[in-house]
Amino acid sequence: MTEKILVVDEDETYLGALRKQLTGLNYQEKNILGYPSVQDAIIGAADNISVILANFCSGKKDALQCLNALQECFPDVPIILLTTGPKIDTLPKLIAQGAQDYLVKEELDNAALNKAIWLAINRKKQSFANSGSQKNKE
Q: CA 68, 72, 76 angle in degrees (round to 5)?
């Protein structure tokens, strides 16, 4: 698949495992960009990112600031949160601020990962199509 995926997670071991999982789902290795921090991702990531998978719900960082920083740098890219548990207090705020979805790392299987990526990308495409048709009506 040609989608370019940006993965942000401070756990380098998990980054490697997720990269392997994504390539197993037929995403091209060259299109999977992994960074240990939001700052590194903003500095190093290329254009044409299709979706962002990001873990910044660990409590070590301000999750809302991290989300806002990614949204500023990649305003048209859907963001899927990777969490270490389903009861993260900031999740509702992050979803309200524009994160497309969240996945629990410990429960992440191929079907859920592939579905979340597909839905996020297609929701964003539909959003663009809807905003374009609204502009044409005006």
A: 110
